[in-house]
Specification:
single chain, 4 helices
């Protein structure tokens, strides 16, 4: 695994305020030699974990990396019936917990799954944190096509120690918004 460059929290919108509640799953994007989405059940406040929940890893397409994560959410979290039926038809082995999309599904079938994921109307909320250097930055406009609450957080401040200069380097500002 490489550097984690994005995180998606999947939960519910809070009716009276911003934010997210009832977070059930988290997706992490690892990037470097090849990207990977890691989907993990969270259930922060449930003491009775559901049996059979497991971590799932997809090696996404480079062209549609963000939409691959949203298809994962539709399949494994929302369990959309139409999307599940498509996965059963289109994937070579839909029950695997490690899938390399370029090898597992034809591009035209994956396009159909993206179209279905875009049309899912749900009360779930996606909170996407995109870290500095993530490839997802160029994919963000696709979120306008989805039918659920979405919040995107991007890096505004970074302070990191540089092994080369032997000092902290700062980018951005910690200024409250008006």
């Amino acid at each position: 695994m490489g550097t984690f460059t994005a995180q998606i929290l999947v939960g519910q919108s809070y009716t009276y305020d911003s934010g997210i509640i009832n977070i059930s799953h988290t997706l992490y994007l690892s990037e470097n030699s090849r990207p990977a989405w890691v989907l993990s059940p969270t259930d922060l406040f449930k003491h009775d974990k559901q049996p059979g929940q497991k971590q799932i890893i997809w090696i996404p397409t480079l062209e549609h990396m963000l939409e691959d994560a949203l298809v994962m959410a539709g399949l494994y979290i929302l369990k959309d019936e139409q999307l599940v039926a498509m996965a059963d038809r289109f994937f070579k082995d839909p029950d695997k917990d490690f899938i390399e999309l370029y090898d597992e599904i034809k591009p035209e079938h994956l396009q159909k799954m993206y179209q279905r994921a875009r049309s899912i109307e749900s009360s779930h909320k996606i909170l996407l944190s995109v870290f500095q250097g993530s490839s997802l930055v160029s994919h963000l406009p696709v979120l306008e096509n989805y039918q659920n609450d979405i919040e995107v957080c991007q890096s505004v401040y970074r302070k990191e120690f540089s092994a080369w200069s032997r000092q902290f380097e700062v980018r951005g500002e910690l200024v409250p918004s008006p």
